[in-house]
Write a structure and sequence with these properties.
This protein has eight helices and five strands, in the order E-H-H-E-H-H-E-H-H-E-H-E-H. By secondary structure, the chain is of the alpha/beta class.
């Protein structure tokens, strides 16, 4: 059975940046996505969040363009499932208020909640106790890369 999991940019950026913490696990995750053993689900905002993350680390524009194109092609080929932000707005607004999240974190978490799937993230905001407690009540959780590969 294929694992279906929501993913945010904190994981995907590690596919394109050398020397990141948990780089080995991130690349294993990427390989699992492209082999079809994991179905990654993202909000469409993740494209731009990855671009922003790569800009912040000073990656050259042509490399950022290649990373962006890789993600778009992966979605086009069906390796990554992309959820429109418009489908997530009401849930994300609720999460911003209840859990005091930034909009991007709320949209990413809403992706998991609306699809009733766990989430993979290295974002510290999504690993706060309040977020974990909220998800546990819904039978979900946020995994870190190291946890995902420890349990598989």
């Amino acid at each position: 059975m294929t694992l279906r999991i929501a993913v945010d940019s904190s994981v995907i950026v590690k596919w394109f940046k050398k020397g990141e913490e948990f780089e080995e696990e991130a690349l294993k995750f990427r390989d699992d996505v492209f082999s079809g053993s994991i179905n990654a689900v993202i909000s469409e905002w993740v494209y731009l969040e990855v671009v922003r993350g790569l800009v912040k680390i000073g990656l050259q524009e042509n490399m950022i363009d290649r990373a962006y194109d890789t993600l778009k092609e992966a979605a086009y080929l069906g390796f990554i499932e992309v959820i429109p932000v418009s489908n997530l707005l009401d849930e994300a607004k609720k999460l911003e208020v209840r859990l005091r999240l930034y909009a991007s974190d709320a949209v990413n978490l809403a992706t998991a909640l609306k699809n009733s799937i766990n989430m993979l993230s290295e974002d510290r905001h999504l690993h706060r106790k309040s977020v974990g407690d909220y998800l546990v009540k819904r039978g979900l959780r946020v995994f870190r890369l190291k946890d995902l590969y420890k349990t598989r």
